[in-house]
Fold:
Amino acid sequence: MTPIIQVQSLTKQFRVPVRHKGRFSAIRTLFSLEREAKTAVDNISFTIQKGDMVGYVGPNGAGKSTTIKMLTGILLPTSGRVEVLEFTPHQQRQQLARRIGVVFGQKTQLWWDVPVIESLRLLKEIYKIPAATYNANLELFNDLLDLHEFQHTPVRQLSLGQRMRSDLAAALLHNPDILLLDEPTIGVDVVAKEHFRNFMHQLNRERQVTVLLTTHDMTDIEKVCERMIIIDHGRIIYDGLVASMKEQLAPHRTLVVDFTQTVGAIELDHTELVTHDGHQARFRFDRRQISASQLITELAARYPVKDISVEDPEIEAIVREIYEGTLQTPKET
Structure:
């Protein structure tokens, strides 16, 4: 199957003024003609298949938004090749725009001073959406995004969560094949984020919409995406399944055991006792050496167990260690 997005050896450099030092440095920099090349995206390659839900993450300045802008045709690559739905974005931007939806969390494509529904009606005309398709989509968005609660409210009066839902509706109104999301949940509350995650799952399940999501919220990635691409300083440092990241890069889990009565010394092979206060104990173990079920069976046979739970490492902590360079990141193909 031909990938729906193909990126090969993609690089983007910007020419920026050389910053001068010393007295009147700001003025000298402002009027200087000296320029230097700054690489925002550095020779990256990846493919995305139809129906994939991929998280594209990295620290500020890593190259995430620059990549999105090249995928949409807003920016021209310095070198390399990018194809989206068999279009070359910067050459066929208008044709591509009719097949993709884009949401930038800090910007809106809706008209600020008119009600949401009027913006959607205008987009219907811009995209030449058939009336039957428009009405069906509007009904779906009312059901899944609760647009009916605020569709007659001017955009400037919406909360961040309401605006995010409105922007999602606007981006999906013309039934795009691909949805590109750049920090869609930035600044929104927990309830709005849960709306977003549920909507993404249903949209992908029912319409096979391909999603590329950039965000700093690792919970969004963990709950929405199966695959994650991590970029740092313009280079891809990990490309693989979210679940595989935990298994490969953070194999240790924590077993938490509550006892029905006070228990003294505990001996359990293949584990490290982290804490023990008599009524509760926490063990750290390597999932590659022994399974949680084996440990649970052994504990239940030897001690008066009341309750047992297993904690996985938080994905946010794993990604932070990758950024800091304390974890090795083998690529998964």
In short: The chain has a mean pLDDT of 88. The longest strand covers residues 35-48. The CA atoms of residues 120 and 170 lie 6 Å apart. DSSP finds eleven helices and 13 strands in the chain.
